[in-house]
Amino acid sequence: MKKIQIKYNIDKTYREIMKLEMDKLGLEYSIGGLSDIKIIGKPSDESIKSLSIALEKYGIEIVNDPREVIVQNIKDIIIDIIHNNENIPNMKLSVILAEKLNYSFGFLSKLFSETTFNSIESYIIFQKLERVKMLLASSDYTLTEISLQMNYSSVAHLSNQFKKVTGVSPTAFQRIIIKRKLRMENNSPEHII
Amino acid sequence: MNNEPLHILLADDDEDDRIFFKDAIGELKIHTQVTTFEHGKELMQYLNSKEYRIPHLLFLDLNMPYKNGMECLIEIRAKQNLKDMAVAIYSTSASELDIEEAFVSGANIYIRKPNNFAELRRILSEVISINWQYHSSGMNKDNFILNIY
Fold this sequence. Notes:
The complex is a heterodimer. By secondary structure, chain A is mainly α. Chain A has ten helices and two strands. Chain A is globular, with a radius of gyration of 20 Å. By secondary structure, chain B is of the alpha/beta class. In chain B, strand 3, helix 3 and strand 4 (86-91) form a beta-alpha-beta unit. Chain B is globular. Chain B starts with 5 loop residues before the first strand and ends with a strand. At the A-B interface, helix 3, helix 6 and helix 9 of A face helix 4, helix 5 and strand 6 of B.
């Protein structure tokens, strides 16, 4: 068995997949930022449907409702800022969202809650903690380093938020993930042979 | 987001607990479809058959006849096609050792069975909403660990 570790760029992966599938269907297009795609000319409903089926296996969905499009844009911006930066910027995400999407934060916040039954704030905490978990699972950083990288005011603040949301402490989480990986490796077919 | 109902499975040998659970789920805002099983063997037969869509979430009681919850969990986590199904252990045990063992074996959620209806409703609502976050954002469930009480 050979173990390799990979790193990938979500945005690039998404663009390559879209190019591949749309070329297959002979569509002409331009891929904008934030999951907006313009199809040039008048594509038939049939070809949009084929595209939608082709994209399903990647977990990519075509959204039609304009409210859902805005919600998707909000999520994309949050995910991009939290997962694609080495250090989380100091700027408030509410300001960034309002600026990038050109709506007031109050409007975005209301729309988001109505559509997802969850507030933007709790979505941001959710995504931040997911990044913290990835960093903890990699075992490459100390909790202090992670709290600095993720722009928490202190390790205690990070620990408390982590415990409050997940019900386990960061160290217990790390221990569980490490034990789980070890067990999975021991149970893998290669090991039995 | 779409209007497809959230498909939930529940395996619990206690009939009262199953009714209690179904009533609490029924009161939530989210559109759900619940399938119940009376023991682990029945659950695994269902999961090993081919005619079903992968459920979103499974609530698994630890103490069941024929096949207990832990045995089911280990079998489920060995199945590659069920990788995206979140598993919630639903137990009366509050022992730290049991909880950690369940997570290490691949559980995503650990719930202490509450004894009143309002508590159960609050817990289910939280579990389903967090599971939905993972599902709708296409997040990797490997790091999905939630200990709720």
